[in-house]
């Protein structure tokens, strides 16, 4: 992925503005890479600029970039993007996060979704979003620091679509105990607010769950085996973002 981005950055520095061409033709000509434009979005701050989401035809990876109306420059966005326009900043952050999720999961998400479909519904925390345009499948471990951080942004996810969160207890005994308790208590949670409260409790670094019963811990281990590993989710949080 880094090599692809480096090639795109090199391209942006070498563009001849006097001989501008369409972005995909320009990339093909100067790097030999075939790409397709998946999405174009206007930027509020400058009507001459637009945000592009492209896909590399050979690798399957997506890239986010800024170009002008003439499509004579190509400026990839990696991690840093600064603007004093809040609307543009929110647009870029959401699109960049979406692309990052895709690039991390697109090769394995079919296999993972197949395994998720086999799980009993009691192991999946289903939350209704403010819109049904997307669904986020999130495999997450209560002891994973990145998962704890991801949970803090749950409200932002729910603004964009529905969330189906699958807690896994793969980081030792304490993790398994927390997920085992979640499985039991989620059975009686009737509202999304109750479910979210249970998640926040389990993911609290100061909370220590009681020792799980052997039967429940076995269920936790079975979920870990079905979802995690080579060719499936190789780390957490593992996020599939699906447009509906």
What's the arrangement of secondary structure elements?
Blueprint: H1 2-14, H2 23-31, E1 35-42, E2 49-56, E3 62-68, E4 75-76, H3 86-105, H4 109-118, E5 125-127, E6 134-140, H5 145-151, H6 154-160, E7 162-167, H7 173-186, H8 192-203, H9 214-227, E8 238-243
Parallel strand pairs: 6-7
Antiparallel strand pairs: 1-2, 2-3, 3-4, 5-7, 6-8
Within the largest sheet, what's the order of strands?
1-2-3-4
Unreliable spans are 8-21
Class per helix and strand makeup: alpha+beta
Mean pLDDT: 89
N/C terminus separation: 27 Å
Outline:
The chain is 43% helix and 19% strand. It contains nine helices and eight strands. The radius of gyration is 21 Å and the shape is elongated.
Question: What does it look like?
Answer:
It is built from nine helices and eight strands. It has helices at 2-14, 23-31, 86-105, 109-118, 145-151, 154-160, 173-186, 192-203, 214-227, and strands at residues 35-42, 49-56, 62-68, 75-76, 125-127, 134-140, 162-167, 238-243. The strands form two sheets. A four-stranded antiparallel β-sheet has the order 1-2-3-4. The protein starts with a helix and ends with a strand.
What key attributes describe this structure?
4-stranded antiparallel sheet, Nuclear Transport Factor 2, Chain: A, 2 domains, 4-stranded mixed sheet, Disulfide isomerase DsbG N-terminal domain-containing protein, 43% helix, 244 residues, Glutaredoxin, Thioredoxin-like_sf
